[in-house]
Design brief:
The structure holds two protein chains of two kinds. By secondary structure, chain A is mainly beta. Chain A contains one helix and eleven strands. The N and C termini of chain B lie far apart (about 90 Å). Chain B is mostly beta strands. The chains are: A mainly beta, B mainly beta.
């Protein structure tokens, strides 16, 4: 009886450890949300500083810079790499601000079901009539990497959006 | 081409109306949550990996507008009490705020100073002052507590001076609404004082707004011009015993208001006697007795000519009253 209990416990520990190991992907993503604030420097001249959005006082109308930093540590090259960032609730994408070296940037206005380059995303209105989606309609942004990521590859993709 | 431009205008209007639905923006205390994910392959099945989640809490921005609501200058008469100016105070911030209201009737740039009487809050929300229904505002006792995008109509009641004001004179009164959390330069932070304990930040309004309402005096001035023509019994113009004096009074109203129930009285001068049957108004004879017509001599007041002219405005014709007396 005691042995059986210990065995189950061991299994549980194993499962738990295994889960952590699986989560530790060789492609690591770090999300950073920042805002640019203007402060006066020691010479009294306005200077733009980029600070952590969580510590800044973000209010409606403010622009937040959403950055995803990636680093790849896998043995084999990573191919078909796609980083996706759903547009956070209460935010409106600022047109033309998404960037990412070596990627093709696409947008979705239907919660990620379909993607197209900026200006070519289609959306259907309440009457089913199709039109070109505006930046405010975007629900997701994705960066499709053109090439493979080798071991040790690092970089970042980012976009800006405004608090509604 | 014209149709194209029209379509474009409609499109812009549509955009504006959408954005104005929620002018104050994302409510204070809202958590904006962001996380990215990646998919890739490396010689096996597709792998999905997630980033950390970053939460940003929206701070409270304090903003307010005050607008004067009357469509035109509020017409008042000299000595009028509790003349009403209508203002609207709107919370344009993204959190709930109490606002302190202050009225001021001593404002530069006008021609007279009203006296501030009281401030009322539009209890029934109909946008018009209802005496006995709307609530008297008492500073810091019933400050309006406005939700984001919420508004209240505020009535400023003032008394108009009874003298020293002329038709067309303007008198100003202002209403100021100031956030109770605080006011100051845009960007001033009141730590942890926003909705739900988030930080509050002063917005572009400075946390305070003011609007000016205007009264305009509407008064009518009634002026009387009296002329006397003497004719003696010898065909001359000497004022001697037996001479007749013909009095002619012209009554004119000027200004923008209405003179209600104008009554002209003129005492028969000493050492003269009224010549019976000579009273005329606008060339029409009036009986001497106090009866159905507009005038009498001695009937209303002994020894006095009394003529009622009714209501006069600047549009009324000049009224001419004529009567004769003889020198005793």
């Amino acid at each position: 009886m005691m042995k059986k209990a210990l065995f189950i416990l061991a299994m549980l520990i194993f499962t738990a450890t295994h889960a952590v190991a699986a989560d530790k992907s060789p492609l690591e993503l770090v999300s950073v949300n920042e805002v640019d604030i203007t402060v006066k420097n020691s010479k009294g001249v306005d200077e733009v500083q980029r600070v952590d959005a969580a510590k800044a006082k973000v209010v409606p109308g403010d622009t937040v810079i959403f950055t995803t930093r990636y680093s790849y540590a896998g043995g084999k090259p990573a191919t078909d790499v796609v980083i996706t960032n759903p547009m956070p609730e209460h935010m409106i994408y600022t047109d033309g601000t998404a960037e990412g070296k070596g990627t093709r940037i696409e947008f979705s206005a239907d919660k990620g079901a379909s993607y197209a380059p900026a200006g070519k995303v289609k959306i259907k209105d309440a009457k089913g009539k199709e039109r070109v989606a505006a930046a405010a309609d975007y629900t997701h942004i994705r960066w499709v990497f053109k090439g493979a990521l080798e071991k040790g590859a690092k970089g970042e993709v980012f976009f800006r959006a405004k608090v509604k | 081409m014209r149709r194209l431009i029209l379509t474009a205008t409609i499109a812009i209007l549509a955009c504006l109306s959408v954005s104005s639905v929620y002018a104050a923006g994302t409510p204070a205390g809202t958590v904006i949550s962001n996380a990215a994910k990646a998919t890739y392959t490396s010689g096996g099945p597709t792998v999905t990996t997630n980033s950390n989640t970053v939460n940003v809490i929206v701070a409270e921005v304090i903003n307010v507008t005050v607008t004067w609501q009357d469509a035109a200058n509020v017409t008042v008469s000299p000595g009028q009490t509790n003349a009403v100016l209508i203002f609207k105070v709107t919370n344009t911030g993204n959190g709930t705020e109490p606002f302190l209201l202050t009225g001021n009737a001593t404002v530069a740039g006008d021609q007279f100073d009203p006296t501030l009487a009281s401030i009322y809050l539009d209890t029934n929300g109909n946008g018009a002052y209802d005496s006995g229904t709307d609530t008297l505002y008492v500073p810091n006792v019933n400050n309006p507590n406005l939700a984001a995008d919420g508004f209240v109509n505020v009535f400023v009641l003032a008394n108009i001076p009874s003298s020293g004001v002329l038709d067309g004179n303007l008198g100003f009164a202002t209403l100021t609404a100031a956030s109770k959390t605080g006011t100051g330069a845009a960007g001033t932070i009141f730590a942890l004082q926003g909705d739900g304990g988030v930080d509050a930040i002063i917005g572009a309004s400075g946390g305070s707004a003011i609007a000016t309402g205007k009264y305009v005096i509407s008064s009518v001035l009634v002026s009387i011009n009296k002329a006397a023509t003497v004719s003696d019994v010898y065909g001359g113009t000497r004022a001697i015993t037996g001479s007749t004096i013909r009095y002619s009074m012209t009554v004119t109203a000027t200004g923008s208001g209405t003179a209600v129930g104008v009554v002209i009285t003129d005492v028969i001068p000493a050492y003269t006697a009224y010549t019976a049957g000579t009273l005329k108004l606008n060339a029409v004879a009036l009986t001497d007795n106090k009866d159905g017509d507009a005038g009498d001599v001695g009937g209303t007041t002994a020894g006095t000519v009394t003529v009622s002219l009714g209501n006069l405005t600047s549009a009324s014709a000049v009224q001419t009253i004529v009567f004769n007396v003889t020198i005793n």
